[in-house]
Amino acid sequence: MSKPKYPLGVANTEAQAVTFNIRVSPRKLNLVAAMIRGKKAQDAVAQLTFSKRRIAGTVKKTLESAIANAENNHSLDVDRLVVSRAEVGRAAVMKRFHARGRGRSSTIEKWFSHLKIVVAEQAVAEAAEAQEAA
């Protein structure tokens, strides 16, 4: 018996990279992910390189991994890649406590996130229209 055949998670013209359990809250990570959604892959890498946010380095590594997957595993043209999706999801929450006055305590929640970046090869016709519009 062989393993069951599952459909691919992405199309033939797409490649993805996923990073699990990033130690940042999903709200903060989504702000960085929103910066690169819909942009050309090289522009997104440049923007993340010069971003002042702490988590931008991790997002950049994930994006570069998706670009490398597109080039090596799917034989896509790197110059025509676009960040089609950048999804942020909730992961585990560590609960800690903070000592308060009069012998009480309050909870501190340390959030973790998941990040999935999908890059797609832009069609030749779409690339020509984008250049005319710009």
Description of the molecule:
The chain has one domain (14-133): Alpha-Beta Complex (Ribosomal Protein L22, Chain A). It is 35% helix and 34% strand. It has helices spanning 26-36, 41-49, 56-72, 124-133; strands at 14-22, 81-99, 105-121. Strands 1-3-2 form a three-stranded antiparallel beta sheet.
How would you sum up this structure in a few lines?
The chain has 134 residues and is α+β, with helices and mostly antiparallel strands. It has helices spanning 26-36, 41-49, 56-72, 124-133; strands spanning 14-22, 81-99, 105-121.
Structural class: alpha+beta
Tell me the number of structural domains. Answer: 1
Mean pLDDT: 92
Question: Can you name the CATH architecture?
Answer: Alpha-Beta Complex
The CATH H-level superfamily is Ribosomal protein L22/L17
